[in-house]
Amino acid sequence: MRVPGVPFVQGRNSFNDADGKHFGIAIHNTSNANLASAQDEADFATRRTDGISAHFYCDKDSVVQSLDTDARAGHAGSTEGNQNSIAVEITGLNSFSRQRWLDSVAWDKLASTLAFVIRTDPDYAGFSVRRASVAELRANPQIKAFYGHDDMRRAFGGTTHTDPGPNFPWDHLIAVVQAAVDGNTEEDDMFSDADRDALTSANFRALGVYQDLDEITYRKANGQNATEPNKAKVARQALERKVAELAARPQIDIDDLAEAIAKRINGH
Asked: Whole-prediction pTM value?
């Protein structure tokens, strides 16, 4: 799934996921001392050769999507983490203070992006907008909650990374995402439930064409699932038939046509 309204830059390290399902949301920081922007990080992801990737990059102004949420990212250092979560890379450092974090993230855009995933992706039905404990994560790698890179390290091993750092404001992240999920944001209030359903339906129709689906199923704004014929696939098939019909018609010889027109003009 691609989130409507969020710029998409296809990352290089997009891996096939065994079941195409994700359940948790893993928070990282880029640990880039140069504090490159989300766009710069996404651009770098198009040429990385180290197998590392993320689904979303976020800075103080914007969010950029790098992988389809059905794809598997290389972000956790462990099979359990990579297989079961989408990755969010926020530009920052482990050494950031709480205030620095609060001032350095486009919280509203990040919240609306993650809320869209939680509200519309059927895999995230029942997602708990909270941070899971390491014990919970170890007991259930498919837990539907937030957790950090360090949480995955302690639960599954495979990495030495401890991001997003000791001062990351988890309480603030949880609050803004919960507000967005509940629809209690000015940005969210700009759209009616019908508007959100239409956007979601269109997004899933496009994904359905890619996956060659005759029907699509998506989660509506009221939390219920909806299934409908994939009109986008029907339209594509109709266009393909029209192109085939045109291609099958006898070809017109341009010289013969020019000669016939000339004769008509000259009265012959």
From this structure: 0.71
